[in-house]
Q: What sequence folds into this?
């Protein structure tokens, strides 16, 4: 599995799986970072769509289109359950927030389904300030 | 979808508390100069407080939370504990943070000032005496900086100061040295002004503050007596707070908000994305009222200030209102800091707007016509139109606010101004009326502001109702970012995939989502209540909504919220308060 890098993002659309209202400030930052870099972001939360400042899609049928790249911000167990539906709906590559989420089971399933994978906080790549420093020490090339 | 301000107040609780910490720390300057090693003692005490508070916060919130409030508590308590044994100082810190703060639910939820609670506790163990400070010119920086904090709770501060000064006067010891030694400014600007534990009721604040200052200092000048008096003050403040919040008043303070559009004055430009029809002569003077009304109706003229309702129904309501005096108010305030198109219209379409006003006066014989704006320098209308300048503060352009200000009429939440014989129209609506009546032109286009919030460049754009928002952005804005639409920068929402320009669209902006950090640590500063134009106890309503007690929130007048977004803009805890009141 590779580290998060710009080449990983093909196209200019991203499916944000796990856009959470409990972690609103962080999700907003990620959303802003993607948007500032020209990506159209489709936030998704299968549990709820209320309490957000943006339109959050609850399932794939609701999405106007399914991007080929997905960014997953879920716990490892939930991430495992999300992989198959992502593949079935046309996602080709998945960026996981960190390597803790992308554990062996998750990576193995991605490999079996032929999904490209990468891990790393997108803020290290697209954010500014301390996020850049974090990215530098994590070996993320901007 | 909820609307929200795209811009936020840069100040936060943490900033305020950090400045307060520096101020209180300066009270130790005389000691630090005479004995530099005391700095180490101070740092140890503050560090102990920070560690304890951070640990408790982590247990409570399951994540790291800023603990700067505990540093302030330690700094306030330090003059009392600096001469006590180290273990006593640590007990004082623990008492302040656990008994004074966390037992009540954490920062801002405490009834009693944590430092004062610890003083009370230590006062039972040790004979703590007043005065607290050694008079010194080195205290002057701290005293001067402290004075600015009286604004946080001005009435209790003044009350306490008056009470203490009176006690000194009656004891025949009123002089600068005594004022410094007894810490009059320290207690009245730093301690009693703690917004979480002090009432914002002016009369109660002054009276109780004066009593709390006078009684202990005059009868028994000890720290135990003073802390007891302050704790009683805190307790009564809490009880008063429980019964406040139901108000029908309209606050006219407003907020001065810096416009994010920096290129407004010099680079303003109109980008006519639709064809502009040439203006020709119009003999509206000979038209009958029914004809004018019919033209307005047939051409679907709607409120272009943001309401989007049919103008004809407003006109009919004014005609049928039966009010003895009828008023016409042309709203050119454009108080939303992100809009520029009304200003452009007032500069470039003034003649047409003036004719529109005359058409309206033909239709309804208004007793008085007002034109209100923030800047009236270049406005010139017929003598019957009184041009009024209102302050450049948000949300002065909200109908209920300026009707109260201008005519002294209070319009209830479930009524509208037309029922009171007051017709309020936005400048662009007046222009649309002129075009509908004189040129039989459908109101199918409108001027809006398209703002690039990254570069600060604003465009005035004429668009068709029903046009795709993303298409307009593509043709006007170069920056990449999220697209927002709404009535203004204070009332916007993220654009949907195929969002179209609607009758209520005033602004299209490209920017980022506002950062609402939703801090748990509201310090009860009261800014949301102070700046709410409808005088609502916003914090109380938000808490009730968070607890799911919607009926109680409704009973606290939440329905009177005009959704201006001021509370979300101003909140020092970064809470999106407007979203909570909007739930009602």
A:
């Amino acid at each position: 599995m590779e580290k998060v890098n710009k080449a990983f993002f093909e196209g200019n659309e991203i499916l944000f799986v796990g856009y959470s209202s409990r972690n609103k400030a962080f999700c907003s930052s990620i959303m802003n970072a993607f948007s500032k870099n020209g990506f159209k972001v489709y936030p998704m939360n299968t549990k709820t769509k209320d309490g957000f400042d943006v339109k959050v899609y609850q399932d794939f049928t609701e999405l106007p289109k399914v991007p080929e790249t997905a960014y997953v911000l879920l716990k490892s167990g939930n991430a495992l359950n999300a992989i198959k539906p992502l593949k079935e709906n046309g996602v080709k590559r998945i960026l996981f927030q960190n390597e803790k989420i992308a554990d062996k089971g998750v990576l193995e399933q991605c490999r079996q389904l032929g999904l490209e994978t990468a891990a790393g906080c997108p803020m290290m790549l697209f954010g500014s300030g301390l996020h850049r420093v974090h990215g530098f020490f994590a070996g993320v090339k901007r | 979808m909820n609307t929200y301000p795209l811009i936020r107040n840069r100040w936060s609780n943490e900033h305020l508390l950090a400045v307060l910490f520096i101020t209180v720390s300066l009270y130790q300057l005389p000691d630090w100069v005479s004995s530099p090693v005391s700095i180490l003692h101070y740092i140890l005490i503050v560090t102990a407080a920070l560690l304890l508070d951070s640990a408790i916060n982590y247990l409570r919130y399951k994540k790291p939370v800023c603990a700067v409030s505990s540093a302030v508590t330690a700094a306030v308590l330090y003059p009392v504990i600096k001469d006590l044994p180290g273990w006593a100082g640590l007990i004082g810190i623990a008492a302040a943070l656990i008994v004074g703060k966390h037992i009540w639910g954490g920062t801002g939820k405490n009834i009693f000032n944590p430092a004062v609670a610890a003083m009370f506790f230590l006062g039972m163990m040790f004979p703590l005496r007043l005065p607290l400070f050694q008079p010194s010119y080195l205290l002057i920086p701290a005293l001067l900086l402290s004075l600015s904090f009286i604004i946080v709770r001005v009435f209790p501060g003044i009350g306490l100061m008056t009470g203490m000064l009176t006690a000194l006067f009656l004891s025949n010891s009123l002089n600068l040295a005594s004022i410094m030694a007894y810490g009059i400014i320290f207690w009245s600007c730093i301690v009693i002004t703690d917004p979480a534990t002090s009432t914002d009721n002016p009369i109660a604040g002054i009276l109780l503050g004066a009593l709390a200052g006078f009684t202990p200092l005059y009868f028994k000048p000890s720290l135990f007596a003073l802390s007891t008096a302050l704790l009683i003050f805190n307790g009564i403040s809490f009880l008063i707070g429980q019964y406040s919040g139901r108000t029908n008043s309209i606050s006219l303070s407003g907020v001065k908000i810096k416009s994010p559009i920096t290129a407004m004055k010099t680079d303003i430009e109109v980008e006519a994305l639709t064809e502009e029809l040439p203006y020709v002569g119009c003999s509206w003077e000979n038209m009958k009222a029914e004809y004018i009304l019919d033209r307005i109706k047939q051409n679907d003229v709607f409120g272009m200030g943001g309401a989007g309702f049919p103008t004809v129904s407003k006109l009919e309501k004014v005609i049928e209102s039966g009010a003895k005096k009828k008023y016409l108010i042309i709203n050119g305030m454009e108080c939303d800091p992100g809009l520029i198109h009304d200003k452009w219209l007032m500069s470039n379409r003034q003649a047409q707007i003036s004719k529109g006003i005359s058409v309206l006066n033909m239709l309804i014989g208004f007793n008085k016509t007002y034109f209100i704006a923030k800047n009236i320098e270049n406005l010139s209308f017929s003598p019957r139109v009184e041009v009024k300048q209102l302050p450049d503060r948000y949300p002065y352009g909200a109908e209920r606010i300026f009707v109260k200000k201008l005519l002294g009429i209070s319009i209830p939440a479930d009524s509208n101004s037309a029922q009171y014989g007051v017709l309020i129209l936005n400048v662009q609506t007046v222009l649309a009326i002129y075009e509908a009546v004189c040129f039989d032109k459908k109101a199918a286009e409108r001027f809006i502001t398209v703002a690039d919030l990254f570069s600060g460049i604003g465009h005035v754009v004429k668009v068709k109702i029903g046009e795709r928002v993303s298409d307009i952005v593509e043709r006007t804005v170069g920056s990449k970012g999220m697209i927002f639409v709404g009535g203004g920068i204070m009332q916007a929402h993220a654009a949907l995939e195929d969002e179209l320009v609607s009758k209520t669209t005033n602004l299209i902006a490209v920017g980022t989502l506002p950062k609402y950090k939703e801090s748990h640590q509201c310090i009860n500063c009261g800014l949301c209540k102070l700046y709410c134009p409808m005088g609502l106890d916003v914090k109380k309503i938000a808490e009730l909504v968070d607890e799911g007690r919607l009926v109680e929130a409704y009973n606290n007048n939440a329905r009177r919220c005009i959704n201006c977004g001021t509370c979300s803009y101003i909140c020092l805890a970064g809470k999106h308060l407007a979203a909570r009141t909007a739930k009602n």
